[in-house]
Amino acid sequence: MTFLPRALVLALGLAVVVPAAAEYADVVLDRNSTKQGVRAVIFPHWFHRIRYRCKVCHSELGFKMRAGANVVQMNDIINGKFCGMCHNGQVAWSPDRCDLCHSAKKGVKPGIYGSSETTGPSKW
Amino acid sequence: MSDGSPHAPGSQPRWRGVVLRWVLPLLLALACAGTFAAAREWLKIAADDLHDPKSPAIGVLQEPAEALASLPHDYVGNQVRWVQALESGAINPRTNILPETKVNLRNTDVLLMHTANMPLVKFPHRQHTLWLDCSNCHDAIFEKKQGATKIGMFAVLSGEKCGLCHGAVAFPLTECKRCHSVERDSAEHKAFGTSLVRERGPS
Question: Pick from B62, B82, B173: which is nearest to A47 by CB?
Answer without folding.
Answer: B62
